[in-house]
Amino acid sequence: MSPIKKVRNLISKSVFHDAGHVSQPSMSTASLSLTAQTRQENVLIAQGLKRHDEGLLDELIVQYQHRLLRYLLYLTGNREVAEDLFQDTWMRVLVRGAQYNGNARFDTWLFTIARNLVIDMRRKRTMMSLEELCENAEDERTFEVPSNGPNPFDLYQGYENGRLVAKLLLTLDPLHREVLVLRFHEELSLDEISQVTAAPLSTVKSRLYRGLAALKPRLEAMTRQQEAL
Length: 229
Known about the structure:
Elements: H1 3-14, H2 19-23, H3 36-50, H4 54-76, H5 79-96, H6 106-126, H7 152-159, H8 163-169, H9 174-185, H10 190-197, H11 201-228
Helix pairs in contact: 1-4, 1-5, 4-5, 4-6, 4-9, 5-6, 6-10, 7-11, 8-11, 9-11, 10-11
Protein backbone atom coordinates (compact mmCIF):
# COMPACT_ATOMS: atom_id res chain seq x y z
CA MET A 1 0.00 0.00 0.00
CA SER A 2 1.34 3.42 -0.93
CA PRO A 3 2.14 5.85 1.91
CA ILE A 4 -0.53 8.29 0.71
CA LYS A 5 -3.24 5.60 0.61
CA LYS A 6 -2.10 4.36 4.00
CA VAL A 7 -2.46 7.85 5.47
CA ARG A 8 -5.92 8.27 3.98
CA ASN A 9 -7.07 4.94 5.43
CA LEU A 10 -5.73 5.77 8.87
CA ILE A 11 -7.34 9.21 8.82
CA SER A 12 -10.68 7.78 7.76
CA LYS A 13 -10.72 5.15 10.51
CA SER A 14 -9.39 7.12 13.44
CA VAL A 15 -10.85 10.59 12.95
CA PHE A 16 -13.93 10.96 10.82
CA HIS A 17 -15.81 8.19 12.59
CA ASP A 18 -15.37 9.95 15.94
CA ALA A 19 -16.96 13.34 15.29
CA GLY A 20 -18.30 13.79 18.78
CA HIS A 21 -14.91 13.76 20.43
CA VAL A 22 -13.46 16.43 18.18
CA SER A 23 -16.21 18.93 18.88
CA GLN A 24 -15.48 19.01 22.59
CA PRO A 25 -13.46 22.11 23.59
CA SER A 26 -11.22 20.23 25.97
CA MET A 27 -7.89 21.64 27.05
CA SER A 28 -4.77 20.19 25.50
CA THR A 29 -1.75 19.25 27.58
CA ALA A 30 0.80 21.01 25.39
CA SER A 31 3.56 22.76 27.29
CA LEU A 32 3.92 26.52 26.96
CA SER A 33 7.70 26.30 26.69
CA LEU A 34 10.20 23.97 25.11
CA THR A 35 11.66 21.64 27.71
CA ALA A 36 14.74 19.52 27.11
CA GLN A 37 12.51 16.48 26.64
CA THR A 38 10.30 18.28 24.15
CA ARG A 39 13.31 19.44 22.17
CA GLN A 40 14.57 15.87 21.99
CA GLU A 41 11.17 14.67 20.83
CA ASN A 42 11.14 17.34 18.12
CA VAL A 43 14.56 16.22 16.92
CA LEU A 44 13.39 12.60 16.73
CA ILE A 45 10.29 13.64 14.80
CA ALA A 46 12.40 15.65 12.37
CA GLN A 47 14.72 12.72 11.82
CA GLY A 48 11.80 10.34 11.27
CA LEU A 49 10.08 12.63 8.78
CA LYS A 50 13.30 13.04 6.81
CA ARG A 51 13.53 9.28 6.34
CA HIS A 52 9.77 9.03 5.61
CA ASP A 53 9.09 6.80 8.61
CA GLU A 54 5.48 5.63 8.03
CA GLY A 55 5.20 4.30 11.57
CA LEU A 56 6.07 7.72 12.96
CA LEU A 57 3.51 9.36 10.69
CA ASP A 58 0.85 6.98 12.02
CA GLU A 59 1.75 7.95 15.58
CA LEU A 60 1.65 11.66 14.77
CA ILE A 61 -1.79 11.39 13.19
CA VAL A 62 -3.14 9.55 16.22
CA GLN A 63 -1.56 12.05 18.62
CA TYR A 64 -2.60 15.26 16.85
CA GLN A 65 -5.71 14.27 14.91
CA HIS A 66 -8.30 15.78 17.24
CA ARG A 67 -6.40 19.01 17.88
CA LEU A 68 -5.76 19.58 14.18
CA LEU A 69 -9.33 18.88 13.11
CA ARG A 70 -10.69 21.08 15.90
CA TYR A 71 -8.42 23.94 14.79
CA LEU A 72 -9.59 23.58 11.20
CA LEU A 73 -13.23 23.42 12.28
CA TYR A 74 -12.89 26.68 14.14
CA LEU A 75 -10.96 28.27 11.28
CA THR A 76 -13.40 27.27 8.53
CA GLY A 77 -16.70 26.83 10.36
CA ASN A 78 -17.49 23.91 8.04
CA ARG A 79 -16.89 20.26 8.90
CA GLU A 80 -16.71 18.97 5.32
CA VAL A 81 -14.16 21.62 4.37
CA ALA A 82 -12.22 21.01 7.59
CA GLU A 83 -12.02 17.26 6.87
CA ASP A 84 -10.71 17.88 3.35
CA LEU A 85 -8.09 20.29 4.67
CA PHE A 86 -7.24 17.86 7.45
CA GLN A 87 -6.29 15.21 4.90
CA ASP A 88 -4.44 17.75 2.77
CA THR A 89 -2.43 18.83 5.82
CA TRP A 90 -1.19 15.31 6.51
CA MET A 91 -0.44 14.81 2.82
CA ARG A 92 1.69 17.95 3.02
CA VAL A 93 3.46 16.60 6.11
CA LEU A 94 4.15 13.38 4.24
CA VAL A 95 5.53 15.15 1.18
CA ARG A 96 7.38 18.01 2.90
CA GLY A 97 8.37 16.37 6.16
CA ALA A 98 12.05 16.93 5.45
CA GLN A 99 11.45 20.69 5.84
CA TYR A 100 10.74 20.28 9.55
CA ASN A 101 14.04 20.79 11.40
CA GLY A 102 12.88 20.25 14.97
CA ASN A 103 13.73 23.76 16.16
CA ALA A 104 10.07 24.57 16.78
CA ARG A 105 7.38 22.43 18.36
CA PHE A 106 5.86 20.01 15.88
CA ASP A 107 2.33 21.21 16.59
CA THR A 108 3.36 24.78 15.73
CA TRP A 109 4.70 23.60 12.38
CA LEU A 110 1.59 21.45 11.81
CA PHE A 111 -0.82 24.32 12.50
CA THR A 112 1.21 26.57 10.22
CA ILE A 113 0.78 24.10 7.36
CA ALA A 114 -2.95 23.83 8.05
CA ARG A 115 -3.38 27.60 8.17
CA ASN A 116 -1.54 28.09 4.89
CA LEU A 117 -3.81 25.53 3.24
CA VAL A 118 -6.86 27.41 4.52
CA ILE A 119 -5.48 30.63 3.07
CA ASP A 120 -4.78 28.92 -0.27
CA MET A 121 -8.33 27.55 -0.35
CA ARG A 122 -9.83 30.98 0.44
CA ARG A 123 -7.82 32.63 -2.30
CA LYS A 124 -8.85 30.04 -4.87
CA ARG A 125 -12.53 30.19 -3.96
CA THR A 126 -13.05 33.86 -3.16
CA MET A 127 -9.77 35.59 -4.04
CA MET A 128 -9.72 36.72 -0.42
CA SER A 129 -7.06 36.18 2.22
CA LEU A 130 -7.81 35.11 5.77
CA GLU A 131 -6.98 38.61 7.00
CA GLU A 132 -9.65 40.06 4.71
CA LEU A 133 -12.36 37.85 6.23
CA CYS A 134 -12.73 40.09 9.30
CA GLU A 135 -15.99 42.01 9.43
CA ASN A 136 -14.09 45.25 9.95
CA ALA A 137 -10.65 46.37 8.89
CA GLU A 138 -8.22 45.37 11.59
CA ASP A 139 -6.75 48.17 13.63
CA GLU A 140 -3.14 47.28 14.36
CA ARG A 141 -2.82 49.80 17.19
CA THR A 142 -2.23 48.31 20.61
CA PHE A 143 -5.50 47.49 22.33
CA GLU A 144 -5.61 47.61 26.10
CA VAL A 145 -8.41 46.02 28.12
CA PRO A 146 -9.78 48.43 30.77
CA SER A 147 -8.41 47.66 34.23
CA ASN A 148 -11.76 48.14 35.96
CA GLY A 149 -13.30 44.77 35.27
CA PRO A 150 -12.63 41.03 35.10
CA ASN A 151 -9.33 40.03 33.61
CA PRO A 152 -10.15 38.66 30.12
CA PHE A 153 -8.02 35.58 30.74
CA ASP A 154 -9.89 34.85 33.97
CA LEU A 155 -13.19 35.41 32.21
CA TYR A 156 -12.33 32.92 29.51
CA GLN A 157 -10.97 30.34 31.94
CA GLY A 158 -14.25 30.37 33.83
CA TYR A 159 -16.18 29.15 30.81
CA GLU A 160 -13.62 27.35 28.70
CA ASN A 161 -14.80 23.79 29.39
CA GLY A 162 -18.40 24.57 28.43
CA ARG A 163 -20.19 24.24 25.15
CA LEU A 164 -21.17 27.88 25.45
CA VAL A 165 -17.72 29.22 24.55
CA ALA A 166 -17.34 26.74 21.70
CA LYS A 167 -20.56 28.06 20.23
CA LEU A 168 -19.80 31.74 20.79
CA LEU A 169 -16.28 31.47 19.38
CA LEU A 170 -17.82 30.77 15.99
CA THR A 171 -19.52 34.17 16.09
CA LEU A 172 -16.19 36.03 16.27
CA ASP A 173 -14.17 37.25 13.32
CA PRO A 174 -11.88 34.45 12.02
CA LEU A 175 -8.64 36.14 13.07
CA HIS A 176 -9.77 36.75 16.64
CA ARG A 177 -11.29 33.27 16.90
CA GLU A 178 -8.09 31.69 15.60
CA VAL A 179 -5.86 33.37 18.18
CA LEU A 180 -8.19 32.43 21.04
CA VAL A 181 -8.26 28.79 19.91
CA LEU A 182 -4.48 28.61 19.56
CA ARG A 183 -3.90 30.31 22.91
CA PHE A 184 -6.45 28.60 25.12
CA HIS A 185 -7.32 25.31 23.43
CA GLU A 186 -3.89 24.50 22.03
CA GLU A 187 -1.96 26.38 24.72
CA LEU A 188 0.56 27.86 22.30
CA SER A 189 2.62 30.76 23.58
CA LEU A 190 2.15 34.19 22.04
CA ASP A 191 5.47 33.80 20.22
CA GLU A 192 4.34 30.46 18.78
CA ILE A 193 1.03 31.96 17.67
CA SER A 194 2.99 34.71 15.97
CA GLN A 195 4.95 32.03 14.14
CA VAL A 196 1.82 30.11 13.06
CA THR A 197 -0.06 33.19 11.88
CA ALA A 198 2.98 34.99 10.42
CA ALA A 199 1.87 38.08 12.34
CA PRO A 200 3.96 40.37 14.56
CA LEU A 201 3.76 39.72 18.28
CA SER A 202 2.03 43.06 18.83
CA THR A 203 -0.66 42.05 16.33
CA VAL A 204 -1.17 38.70 18.06
CA LYS A 205 -1.63 40.46 21.40
CA SER A 206 -4.08 42.90 19.87
CA ARG A 207 -6.13 40.11 18.29
CA LEU A 208 -6.13 38.16 21.54
CA TYR A 209 -7.38 41.02 23.68
CA ARG A 210 -9.88 42.20 21.08
CA GLY A 211 -11.21 38.67 20.76
CA LEU A 212 -11.59 38.35 24.52
CA ALA A 213 -13.20 41.77 24.73
CA ALA A 214 -15.69 40.80 22.01
CA LEU A 215 -16.37 37.47 23.71
CA LYS A 216 -17.14 38.99 27.13
CA PRO A 217 -20.48 40.72 26.35
CA ARG A 218 -21.65 37.72 24.34
CA LEU A 219 -20.95 35.42 27.26
CA GLU A 220 -22.78 37.76 29.62
CA ALA A 221 -25.77 38.05 27.29
CA MET A 222 -25.98 34.29 26.82
CA THR A 223 -25.72 33.76 30.58
CA ARG A 224 -28.57 36.19 31.22
CA GLN A 225 -30.71 34.40 28.67
CA GLN A 226 -30.10 31.05 30.33
CA GLU A 227 -30.81 32.44 33.79
CA ALA A 228 -34.10 33.91 32.54
CA LEU A 229 -35.34 30.50 31.36
